[in-house]
User: Fold these one by one.
Assistant:
Number 1:
Amino acid sequence: MLMMKERRPAIRTVEGWARSVLLEAGAIHQCEEHGWMKDHADPHAHERARCIARDEPAFGLMPDESVAAIDEMLASIGDTCPECPPG
């Protein structure tokens, strides 16, 4: 029986690729009200995203460069939505 692996959608930028990997790994999620990405602050999900980046790097990047892209994206995302009221 022929088995097909589900392919990720084509992403046009490294940032878009990193965001999709972080979402897939459960490391980030979207604010339901405003749409901003928020960090789950889950070290296991962060490591899952790094493993995906090492095993399936972005097109044209080496595994280390893909992991660096994941880390850069994580550094740019906070754990709160800038538009939600504090509390």
Number 2:
Amino acid sequence: MVALVYAAILAAWFGRGGRLGRTGFYLLFACVVTVSVQLVGLYLVFATLIVPALATRNFARGRLAASYALGALGYAVGLGVSLLSDLPAGPLIVCAMTALGAVLFMVGPEARAPRA
């Protein structure tokens, strides 16, 4: 059932694209968040949404790629530590993604001062 909901949302997103407008985007976003929170939990969903965006906010180029890489690496590290330590995967993914995001933010490009 969940796969059908995600398939319908993806079909609407890729089928309608930019013609959805703000209302359509937020409607699809609300559906995805609702279904995802029921599957994996509140902390994991919102950490996945917020941490990559905050960690890469100073990037002028490659922000989307860096965000995807951070998310994938955070999940991989969290699941790996969970496998080795027999601790719950969700909190470990959140901790790993947050720690990696903090490191990326500190070593990433510096914020540029706005030009006058």
